[in-house]
Amino acid sequence: MSDDSPPATIEVALLVNQVHALATQRLNAVLRPMDLTSRHVAVMFQIRDGVQTQRDLVVRLNTDKTGMVRTIDDLERLGHVSRTPSDRDRRVTILRLTSDGEDALRTAQLHTKAVADDLFHGIDADDLTSLRSILTHTLRERPADSGVGTEIAADQ
Predict the structure, then answer these.
(1) Would you list the domain boundaries of the chain?
(2) What is the C-alpha separation between 130 and 133, in angstroms, rounded?
(3) What are the pLDDT digits (tens) for 113-127?
(4) In the CATH scheme, what is the code of domain 9-142?
(5) Contact of 40 with 75, CB cutoff 8 Å
(6) Does residue 15 come out as left (phi exceeding 0), alpha (psi in the -120 to 50 range) or beta?
(7) How far is CA 79 from the centre of its chain?
């Protein structure tokens, strides 16, 4: 392999994983005083953007059902999310952000932006736009049975 050849797919995947781990660690540190984690905030973003059920959150965030129940329980205990029975199907619970949840999400979004700005401070806007495009394309082109959500929230 020559020095000017593109990195192997596994190398890119490992780098993406390392950046994700670093971002998660930093975000969790700044969210800790709010009793939130990056997982809580990801769920709150999804609910804000229209995801209404735990089942849809599990698919969208590619996570397990038990972990999602714990996350929703936490958010409900904190007063950030409410659960109401669906009018159409009594087995389904509709999730909504409370006004406290909307306030907490606005604050968390400021923390998220600060962490992202710090993490990517040396990367120019064109490169970040290209990276976002590549990652979005990667998620949208995944096999249909992979279980990974395809929706990308632009404001996160």
Answers:
(1) 9-142
(2) 5
(3) 999 999 999 999 999
(4) 1.10.10.10
(5) yes
(6) alpha
(7) 20
